[in-house]
Amino acid sequence: MNIPRKISWWQGGILMAGVILFTFSIFGADRPLGCSTAIPYISSELFGLEDYEYIDTIKESGAWELVMLSGTIVGGLFVSLFITKSFGFKAVPSLWREKKGPSVAKRFLWSFIGGFLIVLGARMAGGCTSGHMLSGIPQTAVSGLVFGGFTMLALCTLGYFFYRKGDK
Amino acid sequence: MFDLIGNTIDLVANQDNGSLLMVFGIGILFGVVIQWSRVDTFEKIGGFSMLKDFTLIKLVLMATGISAIGLYFMVDNELASYSAKPVVIGGLVIGGLLFGTGMALFGKCPGTGSISLAEGRVDVVVGIAGGLAGGIFYTLFFTDLKPIVGENLGKLQIVDLFEDGTLFILLFGAMLIGISFLIPNRELHYDKE
Question: What is the ipTM score, two decimals?
């Protein structure tokens, strides 16, 4: 059988719905999908911040999400090696290079700032793409819809101004 | 480091949210779907911020539309339960704006980041370091940030407004799926991404 190197948006959407529903179900985890709580959880364990008020509230979710994320690394590695064949060490994405040039230092600087803002924002909102959007919107959760709307607004506004220069 | 692994395994084993193997398995499935549809790449996420690639938003709308309908009937038959996140206006608005800004710069979110890391993308390591710094910052200043996040207004769900939500959820799900088809099929193609 010939396995396609890439699936389309609707195939991915249908499979993703399967993962979301399975996770919610009593046969799966009986809870929503989530990713971003794992990050402050790792920070706290690595840097000894366990005594802070915030960490107490997130330990359980953080641990669950860390195990889940470890799974995504295995799944992602397997598919990138054998199916998409996209595995390879690379510091500057092609599209970034077109817009912002080949400088590795520049890409690293903005990646750091971006990573910082993502986790700070996700923690303020109490969730990220997986928790608020993939799991919140199917529940018609007001929190997920508000977060999704403002995320899209900032994403596309910044994208428009930040990457405009490189347009040919 | 060993503490982290040991504590994590204990914490998951003592929860009622699937065995360790089940949670890990869910992660594998999640990773496979995201990697295979390529939405972990900068080209798909950063490309969406430039409105040059709509794969991500179409996939998310399709997935949430189907899940909305499926989940409603699963909850109705006690095969799952709703667990909505609370509304905190400041946190959602400011957090959403910061999150979107970071996502446009980095071209990843927490889930797609780890999957992209598995693919060998080195810039993601730096982004994750930034994320860990963000996690420390939030933990240290949690009490100071609380007033900005705002008070908890409850776990509001639109579907609760209806005595019988069946018709609403069918329309809501169909609307999301409909929009996913209406958004133009715009996609960037890179051989090596």
Answer: 0.95
